[in-house]
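Just curious: can you write whichever protein you like plus the matching C-alpha cells?

***
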Amino acid sequence: MKFNLDGLAVYFPYDRIYLEQYQYMRALKQTMDAGGHCLLEMPTGTGKTACLLSLITSYQMANPNCGKLVYCTRTVPEM
C-alpha cells in the first residue's frame, strides 16, 4: 500500500493502516523533518516495526542526503 503522509510517499507492507499507526508515523516524520531525536512507545502487537521501517525507508528514498537513521529495539529477554 502506498499513501501520502504530509507530502511523503510512504510504502506500507499491508493493505490497511490503523489510525494509531498513522499517528505514530506522523509523529516520527515530524521529528525527522525537524532534525531531532525521538522516543516513541506503542503496545505490543500494534505494528511498530512495520511502521518504523516503512517510514524510515520511504523517508530515505525521498531524502537521500538525510544522513543516518538509526533504529534500535529491545525485547523483554534483553531487559
Remarks:
- Residues 44 and 75 are 10 Å apart (CA to CA).
- The chain has a mean pLDDT of 87.
- The radius of gyration is 13 Å.
